[in-house]
């Protein structure tokens, strides 16, 4: 489920657009998500995702984030594995399915802003991520291999309330024995609207190339609402996800919260 992690990370970063923190801050959060769809197979697959995030940010310049998820899947074809929101291995027409749950793939991400942005120029934030293959390959929860991703985030200020953003990255995918997974480009683009000091609404598109040649590429539209309880950014997030391709979930829903210390 690495695509879901990148999607949520982009979403939460966009939702915090109105919170200009000048002081170092520690953030602890948790999000619960549910996705249902075929993911490019002939089966209906259900995925429940419970992610705990720990982030440290030094003002607006850099931040480091660790994500530790718990994953539960049902309807997964026997012999198949969920990797980057693509079902790989097994047979796409398999009628025998199984369920599994356990620790998902742990992610470590670092972002550093090299240009703050001014006028028509957006802020520029390169990033690097590592996905540790901690999810069980035997249970189909992951590939068991390490992935690496590098990319660039752009954010603009349009007036007082609008914050357009875009992220473009390239992921080096670890391929298990007997499979040939491709390295892929990942991308998101959207806009956040800051209604007031408490309410932020975000609309975004997220996509990536398919890891398996000939498979449908995941593509999603996401609508989110963020409610900030404190000026520092502690609050709640709620979102809905609509898959736009056969490689994505038919739909997804999620709710999360975070505390900024």
Can you characterise this structure?
The protein is mostly beta strands and 261 residues long. It has one domain: monomeric porin ompg (Porin). It has one helix and 15 strands, in the order H-E-E-E-E-E-E-E-E-E-E-E-E-E-E-E. Strand 11 and strand 12 (199-208) form a beta hairpin. The model has no long low-confidence stretch (mean pLDDT 87).
| The CATH H-level homologous superfamily | monomeric porin ompg
Q: Under the CATH scheme, which class?
A: Mainly Beta
State the end-to-end distance.
28 Å
Q: Specify Rg, calculated over alpha carbons.
A: 18 Å
Features:
261 residues, 1 helix, 55% strand, mainly beta, two-stranded antiparallel ribbon, Porin, globular
